[in-house]
Amino acid sequence: MAATIRDVAQASGVHVSTVSRTFSAPHLVSPATRNRVLAAAESLGYRPNRAARALTTGRTHNIGLIVADISNPFFPPLIKAAQAHARLRDYHVFVADTDEDPLVEEELIQTLAKQVDGVLLCSPRLNNRTIERLAADVPFVVVNRRVRGMSSVLMDVGHGARLAIAHLAALGHRKIALVAGPKASWTGGEMRKAATATAAETGVELVTIGPNAPTEQGGLAAVRDVLAAGVTGVLAYNDLVAIGLIEGLEEHGVAVPGQVSVIGVDDVVPGRFNRPRLTTVAMPTSAAGRAAVDLLLSSVSADEPATPALMTLETSLVIRDSTAPPP
């Protein structure tokens, strides 16, 4: 027969209510007692009844994770890290994909709000006002967007953009294109501000091309504008745009990095196997997934509304084969 909560209480020498609190409100149980209860539960193979616990605590022990495009290789490491980290806290994660559509994003939030204790919103395409309105229905933590009154995990893409422009300037490039992403992207706005400032500091002319779709097709579509601009270096919105751009340039007989250097953002796996191997700004996606789960569960378990927290994670430049001095 399956172990019961009473079996765990007897094995650990505590009251049944203490076992219940260990799983439903662990912050109310001393670390020593909690460890004793968890050890007994593990040895007996006990698993709490999630449905019954939800009725008792009012919590589902589920969280939602909404991403802009699950086919973009930027997101799977974040999803995987968030799921594993949530599982350690006895939470399940429901993953949903908006396909870069803000209307779909709003619909998914409204649907998940009835089934989860909180939502992780990653690279949202909704405007801040709509996100603030939806937050009345369910707690949020936002990844890669700053929203008033809401906890956020940011990856410092501005710092990465500064490193990228400075790298191209140090190689001798004097005219650089920023191939931008979607209009509603917080990341794109931060990149633009940082790239513009660094270009001015280093005496480089910066040309902005876009908005563009954050995909390989978006990079391919920007090729003609990049060639018409007469630049020798490019900072792309993300690695997918950079890969599409390299493919399009080579189709036009333009060598990378011999004639045009290209830098991406994200450090996704395809960029490491691309030819040439892609110079890129590495984004700490796995760390962001874990940090977002921690912030959300801290908010969910708090007895009173928690003060919004802001966490910024460091980025770095990974130099590979797609950048070189200009011809």
TrEMBL record:
SUPFAM superfamilies referenced in this protein's UniProt entry, alphabetically = lambda repressor-like DNA-binding domains, Periplasmic binding protein-like I
One GO molecular function term of this record is:
DNA-binding transcription factor activity
* Coiled-coil blocks: none
Keyword annotations from UniProtKB, A to Z:
DNA-binding, Transcription, Transcription regulation
Q: Where is the HTH lacI-type domain?
A: 3-57
PROSITE patterns to which the protein is assigned, alphabetical: HTH_LACI_2 (PS50932)
Xref: InterPro entries: HTH_LacI (IPR000843), LacI/GalR-like_sensor (IPR046335), Lambda_DNA-bd_dom_sf (IPR010982), Peripla_BP_I (IPR028082)
Q: Which SMART domains match?
A: HTH_LACI (SM00354)
Protein name (database record) = Transcriptional regulator, LacI family
Give the species.
Thermostaphylospora chromogena
